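Hi, here's the filled form for the chain we discussed.

Project: internal
Contact: R.S.
Residues: 77
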Amino acid sequence: MNVLCPGSVDGDRMVRVIDAEAAATGESAADLRATYEKQVSMRTFVEGRDIAAMAVFLASPAGRVCQRSDNLSRRGA
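And the returned structure, exactly as it came back:
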């Protein structure tokens, strides 16, 4: 079994989360985004297309040898 664990995904939800935190703390949204990005191993948010591509790969014959993987994880490398 494989699991897609993307962590922070770039998109409307993260914009809302960051904007709400910026409004509550007075920090700029850009600074907060940079802080969030520093907390993930890839130093950037995953995009929806990355998740879709990984799902397609895992479901394809090419992904047949991938087993028991935690993919697109936000954990440190």
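Let me know if anything looks off before we file it.
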